[in-house]
Amino acid sequence: MNIQIFGSSKSFDTKKAERWFKERRIKYQYIDVPSKGLSPREYLAVKQKVGFAALVNTKCKAYENLYMAYITPDAQEEKLLEHPELFNTPIVRNGKEATVGYCPDVWAKWE
């Protein structure tokens, strides 16, 4: 298993995901989304699994400030990669598999 957790230090779900993997002694790599973001290839791999709508946090202030609801889908993807604070967290990857949010039922099947 090659687990990557893309999260935010302020996100409670990210902390719960980290704790879930620690309790099961599963090693993971943590990537801070607000500072590092996702590479375009990582983004495409995750988007293919979960869809664009699941990746975007529509409740954050940046979503409103960048007028995400009023721009074209192509422009939304561009803004999402430019402003990583728009991502829903945690994004958990295991190879080609991916989840967004706290999903212990799915992670248990990865073991």
Description of the molecule:
This protein has 111 residues and is α+β, with helices and mostly antiparallel strands. The protein has a single domain (3-103), classed as Glutaredoxin (3-Layer(aba) Sandwich). Helix content is 48%, strand content 16%. The protein has a four-stranded mixed β-sheet, sandwiched between helices. The longest helix has 12 residues, at 12-23. The chain is globular. The model has no long low-confidence stretch (mean pLDDT 92).
- State the separation between the terminal residues, measured CA to CA: 7 Å
In terms of DSSP E residues, the strand content is: 15-25%
Helix content: 40-55%
What is the overall silhouette?
globular
CATH architecture: 3-Layer(aba) Sandwich
By CATH reckoning, the class would read: Alpha Beta
What is the domain tally? 1
Condensed summary:
The chain is built from seven helices and four strands.
SSE topology:
Layout: E1 3-7, H1 12-23, E2 28-32, H2 33-36, H3 40-50, H4 52-55, H5 61-65, H6 73-82, E3 91-94, E4 97-100, H7 104-110
Parallel strand pairs: 1-2
Antiparallel strand pairs: 1-3, 3-4
Task: Provide keyphrases for this structure.
111 residues, alpha+beta, Glutaredoxin, four-stranded mixed β-sheet, 7 helices, 4 strands, 16% strand
